[in-house]
Amino acid sequence: MTRSRLYLFDTTLRDGAQTTGVDFSLPDKRAIAHLLDDLGIDYIEGGYPGANPLDTEFFSADNGLRARFTAFGMTKRAGRSAANDPGVAGLLDARADAVCFVAKSWDHQVRLALGIGLDDNLESIRDSVAAAAARGREVLLDCEHFFDGYKANPAYALACARAAFEAGARWVVLCDTNGGTLPHEVERIVGEVAQAIPGDNLGIHAHNDTEQAVANSLAALRAGVRQIQGTLNGLGERCGNANLTSLIPTLLLKPAYADRFEIGVTTEKLQTLTRVSRQLDELLNRTPDHHAPYVGSSAFATKAGIHASAVVKDPATYEHVPPESVGNRRKLLVSDQAGRSNILAELERLGVGVDRDDPRLGRLLGALKDKEAQGYAYEGADASFFLLAKRILGTVPEFFFVERFSVNVERRWNARGELASYSEAIVKVKVGEEDLISAAEGNGPVNALDTALRKDLGKYQSYIEDLKLVDYKVRIFQGGTDAVTRVLIEFQDAAGERWTTVGVSANIIDASFQALTDSITYKLLKAGADSMSVLPGPTARSARL
């Protein structure tokens, strides 16, 4: 069967910038554009040149993209020609391969928002599209509020789409601007529009206000469109846009679409999708959505013991696609619900070999249940579970022994007459026969403690120089005056490897310190650092187990 070419249009840098809390810098935009380009996206909408200095600069030079770099803006104002409209001129002067105009296609919006006649709006569409086409640009028209407009006045909404197509637009994009249209409505309306405008010239731009943006995009595809617009990780104003991070693997891996359509993203590039998704979150300083389809850390996680047994024997039972196909990985969560199957599978994944009949496995299961009763949670703390298992198996050396630590928090007036808080930590550790004392200040007690602990570890210092604390989470496991605090800390090294450790205590500083020391021990163990003999002091071992 001959497959139809389907084009992907990314608007992360324009519509995604409307997300609450998202503010792209120019280096951010350039980095994200190249991520998208390397992935294989066909169109990258960079922003609105002329509307702000950042976007104007972004479009002032060649960005070296293989994708069609697209500028976004309004059609000409009523009462003037396209040649005399400064907004249109800014779009045509931009270093862009394509121009995407936006125009109202709902008669109510034309009268209310624009305050012009319906014919004036059609003239603006025709003249703007024709002007851009005459300058050699590929032209798109986003028909804003198309589905609401079509339901209210189908003849006028269709007239807007036709005006653009007949004036030379390569793509007429039907927008569900408020995200309120449902899939069955999208499929019906797109099917009717496709009788007037060829599907090879139609696109869909769906918002996610009813959690239907991906479903609406697929419904439009079935009805005939050949361009899908969306954003990475579903960024966008209000509830976001159609999530390309979900759409791309669906189009490539599900036979209903993969057998009918070809896209610019290859199966090889699909294996980078999880990394790209998380790189975007890293650039935006956002915590990744652990439950995101395909790319979330929980997307292929199994917790229940019966399910875990089935996953071990036949992964396809509970995985709709192989996790490796999108660059993700299988995760069998270890918890107080876990049986031997979960633990064996997780140990195998972490590279810890143990026989199913090994009596230490029962000890590990018992220790795990005891720990979780105290408030520990290993579902998101692989490194701490790895260390717990290795300690039960008797294969974790004592690299260093913490003899004591103290943290002081002081609030005082600084030299500028401002009231400020200062934190200072002191840590005394023993490495072999060497006693080491380090002190450090930080912007908080945990930061000060982390800095002091990693300031001098003697012969192991070179192994931890590249460590970076990238995430810190606190949860009150048990409320009241006897509250228990659970701390999760995530570290990253220069090679890009990340790991998470957990600490639990009634004292948040003590819980944090447990997680910090586990993180350093994990790094030294994985790096193959030469260990000392078992260090003195019963606290070192008994406190851990």
How would you sum up this structure, described in words?
The protein has 545 residues and is of the alpha/beta class. Among the domains are: 4-265, TIM Barrel; 301-386, no CATH class. 38% of the residues lie in helices and 21% in strands. It contains 21 helices and 18 strands. It has helices at residues 26-39, 53-58, 86-93, 107-114, 118-134, 146-152, 154-167, 183-193, 213-223, 244-253, 255-258, 267-270, 273-283, 305-313, 340-349, 359-374, 382-392, 445-453, 461-464, 508-527, 539-542, and strands at residues 4-5, 7-10, 43-47, 68-74, 98-104, 138-144, 171-176, 202-206, 227-230, 261-262, 301-302, 331-332, 401-413, 419-431, 434-442, 468-478, 484-492, 498-505. The strands form five sheets. Strands 2-3-4-5-6-7-8-9 form an eight-stranded parallel barrel, surrounded by seven helices. Strands 13-14-15 form a three-stranded antiparallel β-sheet, covered by helices on one side. Helix 2 (53-58) links the parallel strand 3 and strand 4. It is elongated and about 85 Å long.
